[in-house]
Amino acid sequence: MSFRLSRRVQRVSLSANAAAKSQAMALRETGRDILDLTTGEPDFDTPEHIKQAAYAAIAAGATKYTPTPGVRALREAVQRKLKRENRLDYALPSIVIANGAKQIIFNAFAATLDDGDEVLVPVPYWPSFPDSVRFNGGEPVLIECGLEQGCKLTPAQLEAHIGPRTRWLILNGPGNPSGAVYSEAELAALAEVLRRHPQVLVLLDELYEHIRFDDRHALSLLNVAPDLQARCLLVGGVSKTYAMTGWRIGFGAGPEVLTTAMTVVQSQSTSGASSVGQAAALAAFEGGLGFLPEQVAAYHERRDLLVSALSAVDGLEVLQPEGGFFVFVRCAGLLGRYREDGQRLNSDADVVAYLLEEGVAGVAGSAYGLSPWFRLSIATATISVREAGRRIADACARLRVEVEQ
Ligand SMILES: Cc1ncc(COP(=O)(O)O)c(C=O)c1O
Question: Does the beta carbon of 172 lie inside 6 Å of ligand 1?
Answer without folding.
Answer: yes
